[in-house]
């Protein structure tokens, strides 16, 4: 089993939704931690200039000498910018504010949409000879369908779409799906939707159940069975520089992300070559 895992190409999953505050970063951090907890070797790439995934994993802004920016523009290799986290088997390519300027910097280049893909392919080439190569890459995207998100989609195997359980959950989803279709047609024919993850579910909100039903009616079995509850421990964890799973493993939020991780692996099982 170990050998089969080693031979398989690492899976690249992108957390994307152009809406802010829907749970992209929280899902990148906690799904990443949960996957690491069940034995996967996970690399998170923080592509949001806000750097919330980096901060939430305890990587101090001051400690970020190099970042995903340097890897995108080809100034450094990804291996050079990756740093370990407090979570065993989980590392991160942190973000810096430099990412704000990257769009303008690379706009004129013909390979502008493939910067991340190229950096990742070079990284995989060197990483596969190591004793414990990365098996999952999770990319945290900014709240926009800009060139950074396009780079993520062009490099991805599949998209994980976090949707907040609120009245306007589906609003903007068609725009995201259209963008994914465009990227599939032009840049990355293999791109799929891995799944839609419903986040911040609050049973006390009488609307929330209806939202879940609507999203399931609209997206069918693309929606993961696991629904992430609204949970105060999840929102507290980042200010301690820890994933929720380290901050409070037993809280409902952590347990939901562990369930989501096993569901993600299960879906992978269907796709991985035997
Ligand atoms: P995005 O990356 O899409 O902008 P975040 O993951 O940063 O969204 O989440 C937005 C805010 O909601 C953050 O303050 C985060 O801590 C909080 N949050 C996310 N998921 C949950 C949850 N399940 N329960 C409680 N708060 C959450
Ligand atoms: Mg975010």
UniProtKB/TrEMBL annotation:
User: What's the name of the protein?
Assistant: Chromosome partitioning protein ParA
Q: Where is the AAA domain?
A: 11-193
> What is the scientific name of the source organism?
Roseiarcus fermentans
Q: Which CDD domains match?
A: ParAB_family
Q: Which Gene3D superfamilies match?
A: P-loop containing nucleotide triphosphate hydrolases (3.40.50.300)
Question: Which InterPro entries does this UniProt record tie to the protein?
Answer: AAA_dom, DNA_Partitioning_ATPase, P-loop_NTPase
The record's listing under Pfam families reads:
AAA_31 (PF13614)
Query: What's its job?
Result: Involved in chromosome partition. Localize to both poles of the predivisional cell following completion of DNA replication.
């Amino acid at each position: 089993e170990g050998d089969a895992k080693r031979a398989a190409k690492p899976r690249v999953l992108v957390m994307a939704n152009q809406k802010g505050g829907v749970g992209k970063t929280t899902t990148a951090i906690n799904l990443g931690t949960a996957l690491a907890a069940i034995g996967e070797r996970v690399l998170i790439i923080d592509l949001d200039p806000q750097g919330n995934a980096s901060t939430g994993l305890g990587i101090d802004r001051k400690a970020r000498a190099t970042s995903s920016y340097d890897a995108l523009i080809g100034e450094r290799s990804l291996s050079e910018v990756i740093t370990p986290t407090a979570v065993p088997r989980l590392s991160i390519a942190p973000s810096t504010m430099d990412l704000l300027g990257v769009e303008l910097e690379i706009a004129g280049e013909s390979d502008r949409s493939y910067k991340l893909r190229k950096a990742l392919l070079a990284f995989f080439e060197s990483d596969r000879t190591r004793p414990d190569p990365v098996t999952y890459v999770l990319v945290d995207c900014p709240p926009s369908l800009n060139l950074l998100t396009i780079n993520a989609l062009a490099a991805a195997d599949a998209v994980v779409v976090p949707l907040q359980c609120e009245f306007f959950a589906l609003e903007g989803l068609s725009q995201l799906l259209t963008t994914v279709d465009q990227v599939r047609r032009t840049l990355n024919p293999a791109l799929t939707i891995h799944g839609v993850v419903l986040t911040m579910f609050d049973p006390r909100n009488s609307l929330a159940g209806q939202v879940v039903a609507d999203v399931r009616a609209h997206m069918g079995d693309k929606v993961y069975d696991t629904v992430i509850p609204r949970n105060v421990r999840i929102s507290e964890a980042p200010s301690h520089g820890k994933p929720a799973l380290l901050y409070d493993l037993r809280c409902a939020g952590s347990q939901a992300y562990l369930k989501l991780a096993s569901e993600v692996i299960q879906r992978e099982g269907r796709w991985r070559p035997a």
